[in-house]
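Below is one such record:
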Amino acid sequence: MPPESSRQRLRSNHACLNCRRKKIRCPGEKPACSCCVRLNQQCSYAAAPARAVLGEQSRDKLADLEEKVNLILSGNIPIQTTRQEQILEEIKTSLSSKTGHHAPSNERRYSTNHNSSSSARFPVEEPARGVSGSKAIDLFFKYWHRQPLWCFNLDELEDQDDLPDELVWSIQALAAPFTQDPDQWQHYANNARRLIMFRVANGTVELATIESLCFLSYSFFINAEGHLGQFHLSLASQLCRSAMLDLDSSYNENDPLTERKKRLFWSLQTLEQTYGRQTGLLNVPTETWRPWFSSHQGANKHRHPPLPRDDIGCSSPNDTGIWSMTVYFGWIWSRVRAYVTDCSNNQLKEPWWHDSTYAMILSDLMEIENRTPLCHRYEQVKFYERKAEELRLNRAYWVPWLKAQFMYHAILTILNHPFLYIVASKHNPNLAIPNSFWRRSSELVLLHATWIVRLIDMVLEKQVRLVDPSICHMAAIAATVQLYFCCSADPRLKFKSNVDLTKCRRFLKSFVPLSRACEALNETLDKMMSIASGSENMNYEDWMPSKIHLNISLMWDILQFNCNNNLSSQETLTSNLLHSSLTPLPSDREEEMDDDCSTLEIIATTSPEVTVDTADGGQAVPMSFYRASVPSAASGNTPTTTGTKSSQQEKLVAPPENFMFNSSTPWLWADPTQFEDMENMSYVDFQTIPGSAGGSAWWDLGNL
């Protein structure tokens, strides 16, 4: 190497500001260099810097890289393709040298270099507790693989060191909750986001780039950044359209990436089904995604891409894979979400009509259930007999299987949620709910909400770690049903609902360290419990209320999974995505919801004595449904009621609850002695409970 002095003589010691900004060689003439004179630009020089101290060179280099990215993304300078590739390689080299994310033994922490003159942020090295790329990939396949995303298998990643940097960063963002410093996910996500945008701006998008967007959007959803999640999900979907991955004709069996493309496409659809926006003209019409119609469309030019090949747990080549079954149920789930949105906007169509959304969803659900292969059904796989070690080794099958089971029961739970129809009756005084519908709906919601609790019991007993926030959401929905029945007049149902509510809340809290969205959901449920009981320090394990108050807005937040990390939608958009000039103003509907602090008063009083003739299967049980005035304090025994207390002088009275207590439904009741130890009830030995997994009536009713 030549001495320092000889090397510096080969170039100008000082470049003008224009040449320095363009990163081109400056002749160095003063007072104006020939390049600026030729371009008719004002030429100026910065003051000569003092000799750099230890560490300043690296900071200057990082600042230069930030400036390059800002200039490229803003389009302020024209750069040739070769120069773009060179800059991208410089960024990759810098990030790799700073973070060492390709080195398995690397353990570093990433902090943000706050620079008021630059919006780009890149990680800098600090001695602490980051997660390396290889460790992040291991964590991804341990927890997130096929739960719910499935883009590639471990054996398809031949050389992890050659993975695109944006893909590694996005995987690190997903793996961050399982590290010692989970808050670092934001730095990983920002790095992935900037590299992805650089590829989009320069036309170098690859399949791994869209996969990175898929993982990145899911990471934002997990961390309650719904607007950013939807933005990146929409961008990934648009790139799929540009690559024509939404056409069946685009998949060639001779293409080695065909299966990987299928998984990516349907993983994006899974995110859209669970987290996509349900309002506005630009939302994807779910009707076009009816999956089982694809095999009957024939000449229809809009055939859907085929589902990926998934033979885990299948008994024949023609069986639909279990992950694909979750896509089917996810499509139904998206329609349920739309149904809840319609209900929240007072657009409920009478569910007993043959062309109502309620009826069509049930029809589609039965069709999917009919197409579920025997090899995946509950009684066939006998999950409750499996050993924990067996489930751990075959996690790629059992995690999607559990999600399908949760979704099946959650769909029927939310469709028949009593809150929907009580609120509908409040806003539609002329709405009269038929007795038979109310009775059947009450039976279904109690049955399937209890099934969700039974699934939680088994998951805890088998030590299966579930991390998908959508499952947490389903447990919260079941908790609201159990809360509703906590004020039942029947002591057995009251006690059972209290126990099941506790289980749901503890299961939900287990997701809090992994997801800010679940943390917000848990806080919403805690607020609703405080309002329901009228106290913030209530011991809910011994809580046996005669009435509760359900906050309307909080109930909608839980049913719709509304969480913005304790920020309003306007604050979230302004801080993370949009300029303040584009921040949407709150609509009249949102202001009305904010101002509406009303609650529903759910009351259950003494049940009347009813003589039931079981000769006809209990059909003679009177199921009156009427509007009754509020009983006075001097009145005697009143019928069992479940109603709403509003500004009106009438209460909505539901049918008597004693139809749930006859001998035709013994599976609802467990031995109360099984729940005496409330502190250690993480799992109950269902072999000793009447109607347990041993094949009695409980497990023969309502399962998938």
